[in-house]
Automatic annotation (TrEMBL):
Gene3D superfamilies: Ribonuclease Inhibitor (3.80.10.10). InterPro entries: Leu-rich_rpt, Leu-rich_rpt_typical-subtyp, LRR_dom_sf, LRR_R13L4/SHOC2-like. This is Hypothetical leucine rich repeat protein. It comes from the Eukaryota. SMART domains: LRR_TYP. Keywords: Leucine-rich repeat, Repeat. It comes from Ectocarpus siliculosus. Residues 62-195 form the Disease resistance R13L4/SHOC-2-like LRR domain. The keyword Oxidoreductase does not apply. It holds the Pfam family LRR_1.
Amino acid sequence: MRNAGNFPGPIPPERGNLGALETLDLGFNDRTGQIPTELGNLRMLPMLWLANNKLSGAIPPELGKLAALRRLNLRGNQLSGETPALLGQLRNLQVLSLRRNKLTCHIPMELGAFSELQLLKLEENQLTGPISPELGNLAALRRLDLHSNISGAIPPELGKLTALRWLNLRSNQLSSLISPELGNLAPLKDLSLSSNQLSG
């Protein structure tokens, strides 16, 4: 269990000089300020964990340079603005958690390029617009959580996510018929569609 408050204050940009790092975990530390753009220099880094701090500002597009990254967890901060399209270059990413921030963009279509992604958590932000059909390209995805965010219809492309085990779309403003293609998700163990305006 992590101890909160051990290293409060901004993240030193000098962390970007540690080119041999295999893990950077600064979670649960009351970190403040913005994510330093210098972290984009950690080209060998497989895991970046900055969860449950008080980080603010935009997600720097420089994080899209972290080609070796497999786990990116920025949940539980005060990050705002858009999710940079450059994150779509992280082709080895397996876990992406941006939940409980203040992101206000559409779900970027570039996320559909994450062919290795197994977990995608974007819930409890202030996202706008519909679910990107491109998410149907995430062939390895096992968990998708978008609750308390979005509007529009459930795209039929989600029916292609045949590895999916958990789909949480509750407490959105989703409308229209439930896509019959969701019937293709035979391995699905948990489906939550409550508190929407769906029919069928």
